[in-house]
Amino acid sequence: MTERVYGVTPPISTALPTEVEKRHNDNLARELRSQGTFETPAGVASREQVLRSLEAIVDEFVRRAAREKEPKNTILIRDAHGRVFTYGSYRLGVYGPGADMDTLVVAPKYVTVDQYFNIFPDLLVEMAPPGAITDLTPVPGAFVPIIKFEFSGISIDLIFCSIQTLKQLPAEKEWNLQDNSLLRGLSENEVRSLNGTRVTDEILNLVPEPATFKLALRAIKLWAQRRAIYANIMGYPGGVAWAMMVARVCQLYPKATSSVVVNKFFHLLWKWPWPLPVLLKDIEYGLSVTRVPVWNPKIYSSDRNHRMPIITPAYPSMCATHNVGKSSMAVIQQELAIGAEVTDEIMVGRRPWKDLFTKHSFFTTGFKYYLTVISSSRTKEAQNTWSGFVESRVRVLVGKLEMHQSIGLARPFNKGYDRVHRCRNDNEIEEVQCGSLAYVVKDEPTDGQPKTEAKPEIKTEDGAPPTPKVGEANGTAVVKGEHGDAAVKLEDVPEHTQEFEIYTTNHYIGLQLAEGAKSLDLSREVNDFKAMCTSNEIFDKELMFLTIQHIKNTALPDDVFEPGEVKPSPPMKKKK
Ligand code: 3AT
Ligand code: MN
Ligand code: MN
Known about the structure:
It is found in: Nucleus. This protein is of the alpha+beta class and 576 residues long. It folds into three domains: 19-35 and 203-357, Poly(a)-polymerase, middle domain (Orthogonal Bundle); 41-175, Beta Polymerase, domain 2, CATH 3.30.460; 369-460 and 469-560, Poly(A) polymerase predicted RNA binding domain (Alpha-Beta Plaits, 2-Layer Sandwich), CATH 3.30.70. It has helices at 19-34, 41-69, 74-79, 88-92, 113-127, 188-205, 210-226, 239-252, 258-270, 301-304, 326-347, 380-403, 426-433, 523-534; strands at 83-87, 101-108, 133-139, 146-151, 154-163, 369-377, 407-412, 417-423, 476-481, 484-489, 500-513, 544-552. Strand 9 and strand 10 form a beta hairpin. One manganese (II) ion (MN) binds next to loops.
C-alpha cells in the first residue's frame, strides 16, 4: 500500500514519535490548557447549539425569500433551503473562550443581498430564543454583506453569498463548497466570501493528521500573539497565514507529534528560502471560472513584490501575506530564530513550554525611539470609521519609513490602544489631539486596553452626536435686592460645565536607526502620510484629527505597561 503524499514535495521524515516526544507533546497540551487557549466544554456545546439554531433560521429565511420571489411556485418554496458554513478559528478548531464564530450563509441563486438585509435580521430575532440576540448590527455598505450580532453571548460574524449556478442547493448533508464551478458568475467579493470556508476546508483536507495540526497551530497562534507578530492589517501574518505555515510543516512530518511540528516549524520557516512560496498544493491555473486573478509572480509584478508569500490552497489561490514588508519580515525572522532556540531546549528537557510564550518587550526594552500615530474624533461613531481607516494605512507609513536612509527598522506594534478623554475647552481638546493623556477617563472599559480585533468600519451605536451640556458660566452672579446689591456665590448650584468626549487610538511604531545615522528628519514621510489620510473622502475635518508624534521610550504612556513591567526611565543625571 502506498501512502498518500500531502503537499508539493515528499515528506522530510515519516518517523514515528518517540516516547520523549510524546511526553513533550503532553506537556505542550497541558501548557496550552493552563494558558487558557481552550474553550470550556459548556462553551463548545453552546456554540454547537447556536449553529443548529442558525441552520433552522437560514432554512426559513431562504423559504421566505423564495415565497417573496415566486409566491405561486409551491415546488420552489417546498425545496427551498440554505446552508451554514463556518470559517476562521472556529472552523479550524483552534478557537479560544472569547473567540467569535465566522459564519457564512449560502443560498440558491434567487436569493438577493437585499433580501438578506431585509428579511434575515427580523427573522433571526423572531426565531432565536427570547433575548438571545443582542448587538444586532447589519452592515449593508461593507465589501461583503455582513450581519454582526451576539447569539447567547457568542459573537457572530455572518456573511452571505448566493450561488449563481444553483437553482436550489443539494439536499445531502455532505454537500460542501469544494467544487470550483460554484464560483461561476460571482463578483470578486463574493468569491472571497466563499473562499473563507473553501480555504479552511482545504487546509484541513491537506494535513495528514488534523488533531496534530490543530494543537500545533494553537501553540503557534499563542506564540505569535505574545510576540506581537500576529495581525494581517499591521503587516504580520494573520490567522489563515499562520495556519498554512503550520499545515505545511505537518505535511513534511506526517507522523510527528504537535510538539515536534512546533519545533520543526521554527527551523523550517526561519531557514525558508523566501521568496519561494509556501504552498499546500499545486496552484490551479487556467480554470477561468472567475476573473479573480490567481497568484502568479511570472505574470503579475505586484506578486513579485511579496517577500514571504504564503499561498491559499483553494482556487483562485491568493497570497495571504502580501502585507508583510521589510521590517515585519525582519522581525518575524528574528522571532523564528529565537523560537527555534527555545524549542530546541524544550525538546531536550532543559526548558518548559512556558518559555516559548513569554511576552514581547516592544515597549520595555525594544526601542529607544517610537513614532505614535494618533487618530482622534469627537464622537465614537466617527472614531470607529476614522481609526479603522488610519489603522489600515499604518503599514503605508511603515513602508515610507523603511525607505528612509537613517532608519534601519520600523516595527509597528500589532494592536492599537483606544482611549476616551473628557475635555472642557478647545485648549484641552487640542492637547488630547496632540497626544496628551491628562484628560483620560480612567473608568472607561476601553481605557488603555489593546483591541482584540480590528474594528469594523461601521456604526455601532445610535448615530446621534453627543450634545455638549451648555450651562451657566461659572462664577458669581449679582443679585439686586432691597437691601442693596449683594454678591451671591453660586456654589450651591450644580456645576454645568461644557464637556466634550474625545476618542483616540494610538498606534506605536518602534524605530531603530540605521548604522551611522546622525539625524532623523521624518517630516516628509509624516506629512505625506497625513496628507494621504486626510484627503480620503471619509475624513471629516469637523470631527476627526490626526497627529504623528516622535517620542523617546521614556515618554511612553504608563498604560502600555503591564503590572510587573518596568517602564524605561531617563538616564540619571550625573551629580557634580
Ligand atoms: P479569532 O479566534 O476570531 O481571533 P480568526 O482567525 O477567526 O481568529 P477573524 O475572526 O478576525 O480571525 O477572521 C476570520 C477570517 O475572516 C480571516 C479572514 O479570512 C477573514 N477576515 C477577517 N477580517 C477581515 C477583513 N477585514 N477583510 C477581509 N477578510 C477578513
Ligand atoms: Mn474568528
Ligand atoms: Mn471574525
